[in-house]
Structure formats: C-alpha cells, structure tokens
Design a protein that fits this description.
about 230 residues; alpha/beta; about 45% helix
C-alpha cells in the first residue's frame, strides 16, 4: 500500500482567535470542555478533517501527540504537609472541585472532544512524548490504513511553550499542527515522511516542531498543499 498526505493544517492558519474559531466548529456543550491547552489541537483536528474529508467520520483514525502531560487544577490552597491540611485538599478534590475541571486537564481531552464533535469512530490514542514520538504515531496511523481499520488517519501534534508545561490546563496555552494520511495509487510519500521526522527529531525540542518541519517540507515539494486549510 502507498500513502499520501492529502491535507495539512496549523493553528496559525486559522482566522485568528482560536476560541472564536472553535465556536464555529462545535456546540456550546463541547466548547465548555475546552480550555487553553486543548483549544488549539481541537481546532486544528476539526479544520484539518473538514479541509479534505477523504472518508466518512466513522472510518477516521485520530492520533494526537505532544509533550504536555497535564496537571491537577489549581489547588484552593497549598498544603503545609500536615495530615489536617492534606485531608482538606483531599476533601476539595473528592467532594467540592468541579469534575469538568478534571476532564479539561487530561492531555487527551482535545482528542475526546473532537471525536465527539466530528463523529470520528476509528482507532485513536494520545501519546505523551518528545520529538521522536511523531515518527511512532505516523507508524501506527499508517498501520491502521494498511490493515483497513481506517480509511483516513489524522495525526496532530500539539504543545505548550516550555514555561507552561507544568501549569494546569487552563493556564497552558498551546499551538498545534497536523496532517492527514490516506491510501494512494501514486508514489508513496511515507518513506520520505519517516526520514524527515527522524532527521528533524534529532535537532527539535518537541513533536510539534517536527510536525512543523514536515508540513514546511510538504508545502515546498507539493504546491497543492501550500496554505492548506
């Protein structure tokens, strides 16, 4: 089986404010689950698919990848290490904290919310990892197409700036970029994509940086993908 990249999309390709863009893509019910960390990957995934929907949503696989691993919501106070203080924090977590905050903080939150919104029913997973993780995700996505588990695979990398990586999701704004992979009769794009991902991983700080390099290379060699929306 041969593969081709049929679309690319980056968070900076959109009309501007990510929340405003998200409002045009989904319902208010889904929007309330999105915050700073998950907004960019949600928007990029939805816009990437809608730019060239090569398969029915039920046949779309989705893989997200990034270095941000989430964190607990801001604590109401910092424990002083005593049993009473720890007990009060535990009570807040178990009885008083808003459960929605716990959902928002998950690193796979964007994957879950966009799958609900767009109706994706193919294989999916989120991988927390560094620059070399993108190549791993590409391999899994290609295997899904090869074995017929999906007819289109979306691979989206996202990350926060380094200074935000230990922040709760509401205070960890992110950027994202992605590409869409489908089976093809033409020349196979996958070997070159793997080679570039491996090469860029050695000198990049994140999977998102590697994805940006891959998209830039695709735009240079395939004019039809330039400015893909």
């Amino acid at each position: 089986m041969n593969y081709r990249v049929n679309a690319t999309y980056r968070s900076q390709d959109g009309p501007g404010d990510l929340r405003e863009h998200a409002r045009k893509l989904t319902s208010r019910k889904v929007l309330r689950f999105l915050d700073a960390a998950s907004m960019a990957p949600f928007v990029v995934t939805a816009a990437l698919y809608r730019s060239d929907p090569a398969a029915d949503p039920k046949d779309v696989a989705l893989y997200t990848v990034g270095g941000w691993d989430g964190d607990m919501p801001d604590q109401p106070f910092r424990s002083d290490g005593t049993a009473d203080s720890d007990a009060l924090i535990s009570q807040n977590i178990l009885e008083e904290a808003n459960p929605v905050n716990w959902l928002r903080m998950l690193s796979n939150n964007a994957l879950c919310q966009v799958s609900i919104s767009e109706g994706f029913r193919g294989p999916n997973a989120h991988l927390v990892g560094g620059p070399d993780a993108l190549e791993q995700v590409l391999a899994v996505a290609a295997a899904d197409l090869w074995r017929g588990a999906a007819k289109q695979a979306l691979i989206v990398a996202y990350d926060t700036d380094p200074e935000h990586r230990n922040h709760p999701s509401g205070r960890a704004p992110s950027a994202a970029a992605g590409l869409s992979l489908v089976a093809a009769d033409e020349d196979d794009a996958l070997p070159a994509l793997f080679g570039l991902a491996e090469l860029e991983a050695a000198s990049s700080d994140s999977a998102l940086d590697v994805m940006h390099s891959c998209i830039a290379s695709l735009a240079a060699t395939r004019p039809a993908l330039r400015g893909a929306r």
